[in-house]
Amino acid sequence: MGSTNRELKQSKDLVQTLLTIQDLSYNNWLHEKHQEYIQENQDVVMKSLMHYKGLNNQEGNNNY
Hints:
Elements: H1 5-21, H2 26-40, H3 42-62
């Protein structure tokens, strides 16, 4: 079961408060987390792109 909106808001508020106390920007912190997640899952992105490229090439060959 996923988190409720209330739980998400409470978590976000707590993180924002903790970051503010440390003189850190929530938006910068969140951006860093997004970048970390993208880097950790780069293999998934690359596999998807290669799969798409393969499908695209197959479709292109059917046009001839």
